[in-house]
Amino acid sequence: MHCNLINGEWRGGQPAIVNRNPSDLDDVVGDYASASAADMRDAVAAARATFPAWSRSTPQQRADILDAAGNEILARKIELGTLLAREEGKTLPEAIGEVARAGQIFKFFAGEALRQQGELLDSVRPGVEVLISREPVGVVGLITPWNFPIAIPAWKSAPALAFGNCVVMKPAELVPGSAWALADILQRAGLPAGVFNLVMGSGRVLGPALLDAGIDALSFTGSQATGERLAADCAARGIKVQLEMGGKNPLLIADDAQLEQAVECAINGAFYSTGQRCTASSRIIVCHGIHDAFVARLAERTAALRVGHALDSASQIGPVASEAQLAGNLSYVDKGLADGASLLCGGERLTLATRGYYQSPALFAGCTPQMAISREEIFGPVAAVLRADDYEHALALANDTPFGLAAGICTQSLALATHFRRHAEAGMVMVNLPTAGVDYHVPFGGRKGSSHGPREQGRYAAEFYTTVKTSYLGL
Ligand code: NAD
Where is the active site (predicted)? Predict the structure, then answer.
């Protein structure tokens, strides 16, 4: 059994989590220990005890450990990518790409540990200087979702460690394998006991235990419902909090879009990774002039997508991650039909050679902004096409959402692209690119109901994982 990592020791636990392959339910990826609330308290206590020493470690020590972890992740990307594809269900190339990204993130933050920031200023008073410096926040809790089993643990833990924080990480129940592999790598890369703790198991049990144990900051990625509850709980306890939640990301197709490029953006953004990306293009807003040609081509391409086992090189779309997620997707297909949208293709459970959670990608046209499939995050391969009279109408539809993570436009006009970049109410804007697919060295995050708190990733990660100190020096 794969154990929890608490205070540098692998500790067994309660009944195991059986990690099954959603491409083939007969394939057991492994057994993972399910931690108790007491284990969580021990992990936070270990992190607290070791924080004074770790926060005073040299930037070189931290950089060397993160760099070693990054190198090992990159060297093992095919093996770890295979594990990831088996436990989450994204196709092997996507999974290997995700692992490589995790490795690059560690190497980026190895550099950030060395590139410290500070300012020395003259005071407004004579004979005084002001020093502005950054210090680690303390013990940081990380709660991660199932759809990026190694990239999200990496983009939270790498900056946390780089800036001298101690970490307690609670990965999603569905995908403990990649997080466990990361903990193992970090441990062997030389982290002192207690600096990084892995506590696997139920969010409902371990989330409250994490907050009650006395952490200084919480970085959460997951659903809006869980995030909002955690935000209230953190506020009541004075815990610094960062939330990355859902999306209902618009991809706007302007009349002058290059047709094949626009269709490719829609296919990739809506259906790759089985639509299970917070940045997925789940609303495709198409201007009247190009609408019919675009929808016809998109339906043709969607119907031709090959759904299959994540490890089969012929597969373009892997399975849905879980039975519950698949049931949710299919219930949205029913809602779309009941609301009067036209299902152009897909939306059915598929029976393939192995027992898995397979679904054909569903494309709806004729959607109105009020329909559930146009408003609510589905988090699966279900896309809604909305027709717009013109660009202004399309922009209004794009912004008519409680979310604000990513927004995309396909156009050949610099003026439209610039206007959209300025007026899209989203944290990230893509021009002639799918809404999903981001770089690791720049900020990631959204607005409105999608995000709360400072951005993740890139240099901006310092906003969350450090606290600013202003020192006045009498001369
Ligand atoms: P989820 O909210 O169900 O679970 C996320 C994590 O929270 C899991 O580790 C879970 O165990 C834990 N959790 C559950 N209940 C908890 C509680 N009461 N207290 C503390 N922790 C608890 O989300 P999910 O189904 O794993 O992930 C899908 C969601 O994540 C989607 O909404 C998606 O948009 C979002 N997501 C957002 C981003 C982003 O960066 N914006 C990235 C990936 C996924």
Answer: 244
